Amino acid sequence: MATMQTLLSLDESTLEQFLHHVIDDICGRRPAFLSLYRSKLSAFDLPVAIKAAGDLIRKSIRTERTRDELRDFCQSETDSSLLSAALTAVVVARQDELKSRMIENATKLTSSWLSDFDWSIQMVVASDKLSSIRQPLCLITLYVHHNNRPNEQDEQVVIECDRERLTQLIENLEKIDTVLQRIRT
């Protein structure tokens, strides 16, 4: 709450300008916060206010919202109509830029990604050791695209799983999905 009070210590036009500068910072342009806000915020309060405003902005654009939904979200997060109105105005004005920059930052984490996959089931009926096995195997082909190799075809990675390994893989993917869902909200 002390962080919100720091942001609320700014007058309305300075608050909106500060939020625009925080978005500039998120988008990779580095505003000179100290020289711009030295007279308004202390050297101790400034980094705290930048982080708090950045966190609010990032949280506000995680999901698609109408202007009214965004205003309600900001109001519930800040308990301040002044901060909520400024945050809503700034985020709506720069929403496309923010989203594209955040997507760009997220995809920079790796130069490769899964572009497609395919699967098939094969029945192993015998081997050189046993005359009758009758064990189903799942073959999963992952098509991985590499940014650093744009002119090449996607790499194919083939995974062969018996029933037990397939069950374990599915459980792990469900755990990953649960974590991703938590991150999104």
Polypeptide structure, described:
The protein is an alpha+beta fold. Helix content is 56%, strand content 17%. The chain contains seven helices and three strands, in the order ααααααβββα. A three-stranded antiparallel beta sheet has the order 1-2-3. Helix 2 packs across helix 4 (45-60). It starts with a helix and ends with a helix. The model has no long low-confidence stretch (mean pLDDT 84).
> What's the count of strands?
3
Structural class, from secondary structure content?
Answer: alpha+beta
H-E string: HHHHHHEEEH
**What amount of the residues lies in strands?**
15-25%
The strands making up the biggest β-sheet line up spatially as 1-2-3
CA-based gyration radius: 25 Å
How many alpha or pi helices? 7
Task: Walk me through the topology.
Elements: H1 2-8, H2 12-26, H3 33-37, H4 45-60, H5 67-78, H6 81-107, E1 112-124, E2 135-146, E3 155-161, H7 163-184
Antiparallel strand pairs: 1-2, 2-3
Helix pairs in contact: 1-4, 2-4, 2-6, 4-6, 5-6
For the structure shown, list the relevant keywords.
185 residues; elongated; alpha+beta; 3 strands; 7 helices
Short description:
It is built from seven helices and three strands. It has 185 residues and is of the alpha+beta class.
